[in-house]
Amino acid sequence: MERILVTGGAGFIGSNLCDRLIEAGASVLCVDNLLTGALHNIEHLFGREGFTFLKQDVTDYIHVPGPLDSVLHFASPASPVDYLELPIQTLKVGALGTHKVLGLAKEKRARLLLASTSEVYGDPQQHPQKESYWGHVNPIGPRGVYDEAKRFAEALVMAYHRVHGLDTRIVRIFNTYGPRMRRDDGRVVPTFICQALAGEDLTVFGDGSQTRSFCYVDDLIDGVLAALERGDAQPINVGNPEEHSILSFAEKIIDLTGSSSRIVHQPLPVDDPKVRQPDIGRARSLLGWEPEVPLDEGLARTVAFFKETRR
Ligand code: UDP
């Protein structure tokens, strides 16, 4: 039985990953300090065979008895609102936390997968974004704390790969949505859905011409696990290339929910990327992976989740 450690395992993507690994029969050590993650995301896993939860900050020394096959590093505040509120923790988990998990993986001779981000491309001047693009990031802007932490994390992972021969993976995750997003994390998907369900105005930042490409979480997990199994050490984009303007996305949410909400405009946040779309050619050819869940279907499942949960 594979023994896998997931940092950030009580978060949105981390908890979905823990679910999938447990279903596949792995033994899962879920580590989370619950700063932006939450126990309710994993409480159904307590008591499941092979599942262990450790409440710990991965920027501190991590001691894990016994062998490990893989370490999946998903811990980080990840929504712009969260990392603007937690800039130092965001930098620490990307830098010190990545160093700790690399040390652990080296000690255990485990494979290490880093959850990186499309934010390494910043406000991109190449479109769509290929892995070979170096990005356009403002290091001292408000988003720089996340972007630069992940860029440093990638550099550190590559250094451990080159110097210590560690078996490593870097997945660059694009906008992902689905059940277990926090309704108050400020991201566009939960914000618009919850506004629409409450009959409140949908807050489109700027004129809404900026674009994003949304991947359903189940597809994302498939891509991450494919990268873990069959990837190589070079970064790989995991996301859905179907691109939408934020204004048209707001209209879609109003349609799908049958809401009477209207659209209002608010100022665009500083350094908000104007476009974002993954080139997934590498994931297609290397992993044989591509997303399958259509946006309307993924959104319908996400709307159902927010209707069912009070949180
Ligand atoms: N956005 C918006 N209204 C909101 C929240 C977000 O118009 O209430 C926009 C935001 O300016 C950005 C896009 O939606 O252009 C996606 O924002 P999100 O916070 O989900 O993540 P990002 O892709 O910027 O990391």
What does this molecule look like?
This protein has helices spanning 12-23, 80-85, 87-108, 144-164, 188-198, 217-230, 246-257, 281-287, 295-308, and strands at 3-7, 27-32, 51-55, 70-73, 111-117, 168-173, 176-177, 202-205, 211-213, 215-216, 236-238, 243-245, 263-266. The chain is α/β, with parallel strands linked by helices. The chain has one domain (3-178, 215-241, 275-292): NAD(P)-binding Rossmann-like Domain (Rossmann fold), CATH 3.40.50. The strands form four sheets. Strands 3-2-1-4-5-6-11 form a seven-stranded parallel sheet, sandwiched between helices. α4 (144-164) links the parallel β5 (111-117) and β6. α5 crosses α9. The two termini are 35 Å apart. Bound molecules: uridine-5'-diphosphate. Uridine-5'-diphosphate is lined by residues 79-80, 175, 186-188, 191, 203-205, 210, 212, 246, 268-269, 272.
Number of domains: 1
The ordered H/E elements are EHEEEHHEHEEHEEEHEEHEHH
Going by CATH, the architecture would be 3-Layer(aba) Sandwich
The rounded distance between the terminal residues' Cα atoms is 35 Å
Rg is: 19 Å
CATH-derived topology: Rossmann fold
Instruction: Please state the overall shape, judged from the principal axes of the Cα atoms.
Output: globular
The CATH homologous superfamily corresponds to NAD(P)-binding Rossmann-like Domain
What descriptors fit this protein?
311 residues, alpha/beta, Rossmann fold, two-stranded parallel sheet, binds uridine-5'-diphosphate
Layout of secondary structure:
Layout: E1 3-7, H1 12-23, E2 27-32, E3 51-55, E4 70-73, H2 80-85, H3 87-108, E5 111-117, H4 144-164, E6 168-173, E7 176-177, H5 188-198, E8 202-205, E9 211-213, E10 215-216, H6 217-230, E11 236-238, E12 243-245, H7 246-257, E13 263-266, H8 281-287, H9 295-308
Parallel strand pairs: 1-2, 1-4, 2-3, 4-5, 5-6, 6-11, 7-10, 8-13
Antiparallel strand pairs: 9-12
